[in-house]
Amino acid sequence: MKGSIRLFKIFGISINIHITFFLLLLLVIPGGIKWVFLVVGVFFFVTIHELCHSLMAKRFGITVREITLLPIGGVSSMTKMPEKPSQEFLISIAGPLSNIVIIVIFFYPLRYLLGPSALLQYPLSTETWPLTIAYLYWLNLMLAFFNLIPAFPMDGGRVLRAILAARLGYQKATRIAVGFGHAFALLFAYFGIIRLNIILIIIAVFIYTAASGEETQVDVKETLKKFRVRDILPRDFVSLGSSTTLAKVLELVFHSHQEDFPIVDGKSLAGFVTRQDIMQGIHQYGMEKQVGEVMRKVFPKVKDTDSLVKVQAIMHEKGMRALPVMRDDEVIGIVTIEDIGRVYALASQRG
Ligand SMILES: [Zn+2]
């Protein structure tokens, strides 16, 4: 995520901290060392919470590249979404559950160490160190409950979708969960405004837009599921020999609708260049360089029988905007992110 600093790496996941966290620290510093302790403590527990989501995701073969800690919680970036509702349920519940486990484990030890009156004092305060530690302890409970609110895409909302999806299917379940997300966002915004609570307003905006974003994502996925590469494959395409100069390639980019090219050696596919590869090659080596010397030799391919969902997932995961399409061992075309976008735009208009 932009504007974040990498702290450390654990279980292969980078833990990043967003700069807004330092702003929060600056805000609480005038309140004294106990407030700083509280903020750092909360971030420690948010990290554990997010790690539990990630470790559960890992069990289902979903890789988590990084966790970014924001003042309002953490965001895990997963390479793909869980496929089965039961997986989403377990991944989503793992985070809040970790906070509840912490509450259960530390209750008696803290009651013994701090004394029952300090641990159970209400309202929470930072007057003394025992009270501050009790404050931090109870923040775990708030973290668990807040995240379990069914405001999709927060954890509780994902749990709700998973339960609904098992009966209603993914798309319908998402629609209902997004409705909950929007309703809670409006509720948070209302309380944020009448209580002048800026954090609550930020959370409301975040939930509203994130819920809408996920709804679009699911709609796209469900629409693209219905199509295979061969249904949308452009009829003609240009492939290049490896000795073609970059000047010639650039001319082809201008005169055809194609911006990415397979490089063939006889009939077999030897390489692939994207628009960026061509531009970068020209910038680095000049117009007379041969395309065979700047082409990618390792790149993903798709089959004409693959579904567009699969193609889109590969493009997303590998950061490619175009892929060569194969039938048996022969390249038969190019599929681009624009082709997929066009299909989605047309199909969703019709439906
Ligand atoms: Zn969570």
The radius of gyration over CA amounts to: 26 Å
* Strand-pairing-aware structural class: alpha/beta
- Beta-strand fraction estimate: 5-15%
Structurally, the number of domains stands at 3
Shape type: elongated
Give me the strand/helix succession: EEHHEEHHHHHHHHEEHEHEEH
Name the average pLDDT: 89
How are the strands ordered across the major sheet? 1-2-3-4
Q: Distance between termini?
A: 35 Å
DSSP summary: helix tally: 13
- What are the low-pLDDT stretches, counting only 5+ consecutive residues below 50? none
Q: How many beta-strand segments? A: 9
Largest sheet: number of strands, sense, barrel closure = 4 strands, mixed
The ligands bound in this entry are: zinc ion
Helicity level? 55-70%
3D architecture notes:
The chain has 3 domains: 1-148, no CATH class; 151-224, no CATH class; 229-350, CBS-domain. The chain has a 4-stranded mixed sheet. Strands 7-8-9 form a 3-stranded mixed sheet. A two-stranded antiparallel sheet has the order 5-6. It is α/β, with parallel strands linked by helices. The protein starts with a strand and ends with a helix. Helix 3 runs antiparallel to helix 5. It has 13 helices and 9 strands. It has helices spanning 19-28, 33-59, 85-114, 116-119, 129-148, 155-168, 170-194, 198-224, 229-232, 246-255, 275-285, 308-318, 337-350; strands spanning 4-10, 13-18, 64-70, 73-78, 261-265, 268-273, 302-303, 322-327, 330-336. Bound molecules: zinc ion (ZN). Zinc ion binds next to helix 2.
